[in-house]
Amino acid sequence: MTDTLTLDSSTALVLIDLQNGILSLPTATPSADVLRNGIALAEAFRARKLPVVLVKVAWSPDGGDLPTTDVDRPGPATAPPAAFSEIPAELAALGDVIVTKRHWGAFTGTELDLQLRRRGIHRIVLGGISTSVGVESTARTAWEHSYSLVFAEDATADTDAASHAHSFGKIFPRIGRVSTTAEIIAALSG
Predict the structure, then answer these.
(1) Total-model pTM
(2) What is the pLDDT of residues 23-66, one digit of tens each?
């Protein structure tokens, strides 16, 4: 990083898909480590009365809102059980903003932008699973909406190590700041 990271009252934490079904996937970085760092970030944000936004992916029980585009590697053909989308109790807290998405990115078809703007948020600290899908899709749209971005690399993981490395090595430095959980918590304290 070229200068000291500073975070102020216009900053929110947005964690993507840290939910039971996604956390059970085999990730290059253990999902337990990502969850532990996500919890640490959430606690630090809450202690400073800054918004914590937990984004989960879910679909209607009938699967009518599942993506239906013609692709070589389609997603699920049926909606997963409700337990798939549950956020672990140790992560969620009263007062958190919960956003349900039905696409890769957390802005498409959700109230995320509204929830952030009405709270005066201009900077997002972003983490979650998976780096190259939900996190990167959300980050690209956030950047296009002129949000300033900070990426918590150790609170982010992918099922593919090369995809994670590509996002953090090639994409994220062009649209935001790459940091760690400890550096972000220190910036909140500073």
Answers:
(1) 0.96
(2) 999 999 999 999 999 999 999 999 999 999 999 999 999 999 99
By the 8 A CB rule, do 125 and 154 touch?
Answer: no
Q: Is the peptide bond before 130 cis (omega within 30 degrees of 0)?
A: yes
Coil vs helix vs strand at 67:
coil
Residue type, 149: L
The two three-digit tokens of residue 109, written as one number: 């078809």
- According to the 3-state scheme, what is the secondary structure of 3-48? CCCCCCCCEEEEEECCCHHHHCCCCCCCHHHHHHHHHHHHHHHHHC
Signed CA dihedral, 178, 141, 157, 18: sign only: positive
Q: What is the dihedral of CA 68, 159, 134, 121, to 10 degrees?
A: 170
Longest CA–CA span in the chain (Å) reads 50
What single DSSP character describes residue 185? H
Query: From CA 190, how far away is CA 188, in angstroms rounded?
Result: 6
User: Tens digits of per-residue pLDDT, 70-104?
Assistant: 899 988 889 999 999 999 999 999 999 999 999 99
